[in-house]
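Standup notes, protein team

Yesterday: finished cleaning the Acanthochromis polyacanthus set.
Today: inositol-phosphate phosphatase structure.
Blockers: none.

Input for inositol-phosphate phosphatase:
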Amino acid sequence: MAPMGIRLSPLGVAVFCLLGVGVIYHLYAGVISSRLAAFRQRRKVDLRELLAVSIEAAVLGGKEVKKVREENGLNEKTKGKTKEGAKELLTTGDLKSHRKMFNLLKNTFPEVKVYSEEHDDVVDQTLAWSRNIPEYVLEKIKGRKEVNPESITVWIDPLDATQEYTENLVKYVTTMVCVALEGKPVIGVIHRPFTGFTAWAFVGQASNMNSRSSYSATPSKVIVSRSHSGQVKNYIREAFGNGTAITEAGGAGYKVLSLLEMPPSEAGSIDQADLYVHITFIKKWDICAGAALLNAQGGHMTTLKGEDIDYSETALNTGGLVASVGVDHKAIVKKLPDYDPGKH
């Protein structure tokens, strides 16, 4: 008798192969799925850790800023002019602070978008986060706060108030970090290198800052830029009257702090204001951290028309700004004259 054999038609071979693929899929689908889930989990960013790194970066940059100023090694140069014709200065302090702050943040969170006022080709891969979350953060913020890195934009200002820095008006100088989530500021850090004080906030979670007990709703004191003021004084007096006290100050970070309650050690070195107004173009690394600090206290920073500012990828805010806390922000905006920063 001839040996028996099994003959499969091409259709049978195809069915057999499909069945084999199906078996393999069922065997490995669970493994693949669990590994993908684990990968996605590893890619999450803990905002509490990002707050800790932001504080560390601002302080680290501040040390460079202070050292360069004390050694008088500024080497200042002009990198351009603003739309209003004011010089935009660059110093060694700006660059050294940028290198520390930018590289520390990128080395710790390489998948997160980080935008800095300065640009530099120096890459320092040795800079590493200390892995230390300060006790004051751990006490106020319980547990991890994880988000997808794609939803995060970080803005850093390595040296705010460079003009004043060159003039040795160091009380205005700050280093700043802001974390925006889906375009909304959620973490803000403003560090004062020459006093050592660091203001921070995690919106909806905690802050080491508070609003003051009272503000003038009129308002009676308005703070503005001393180097980019444009026609802001006439604008404010048209809105609130000739009796309005107007304080000129350097640095957007400083001006936001003037709206908040400062600790006794800092109070003597900072002006107080009811409102902060800016009517020309301004970059988002200047204002994002301050917006987070104000939002954490129920305050607001909007365009002159009362619109929310999107802190996604576009660096320039063209709508001017008005910042307040402890007052009716919408009522303030209604008093402001129509003004288009792009036409002035």
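Follow-up from PR in the comments: The two ends are 104 Å apart (CA to CA).
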